[in-house]
Amino acid sequence: MSWFKYKIIKEIYQSYPLSFESRIRTALSGCQTILDIGCGTGRLKTLYSNADYCGIELHKASADIALRSGYIKIISNDVNKALSSLPKRSYDACVAIDLIEHLEYKDGIKLLNQMETVARKVSIIHTPNGYVPQKSINGNRFQVHISGWSPDFFLKRGYKLYGTMGLKWFRSEQAIPVLKPAVLGSIISFATEPFTVLFPNYAFEILAIKNLTSNNWHHHNIGLGES
What's 163's DSSP letter? Predict the structure, then answer.
């Protein structure tokens, strides 16, 4: 199968209501200001463009691309230092896609507490299901995986979970398909997403969404002794 045909299949899948992309768009619906934490090159804006974006990003080359893509501002600082400088409820949404696994556990806890304080409407995390090893990529040391996070951890904090990237046994470091050729492996992996989106314990990655406007919401400052 040609790469072009695979791309078409992927684009069709991304419009599927239970896909990662569709879930992100639904979760961000109505948000006018978004803080993209560890924004990289600004991919999030391509998924949901109806908002003003501010990013936090230490890797200068990636930050420059995000600015060119339409991000209003990029804060070049440690994520927790940057968040601690922001007023409470200053953004509609705080989003951290594939970031928390690059932090020490105690720093990840701090990140979540601060995201839930800075955001008015929703806090969103996307991360591998458990610890998945990863080394630096293209010389970017910030891409190294340091910690792993379980579905149960996010459930205890009041997040709603969805599995992404298919069954966890079908992908390895950098989400590279285990089955070869890679195009076929990706297609097979994506084909399992309708199952893993509903059963995140079996997924390669997890999408965790917390609605901060819910009447029964209260802040969880989970300490280091809990997981």
Answer: E
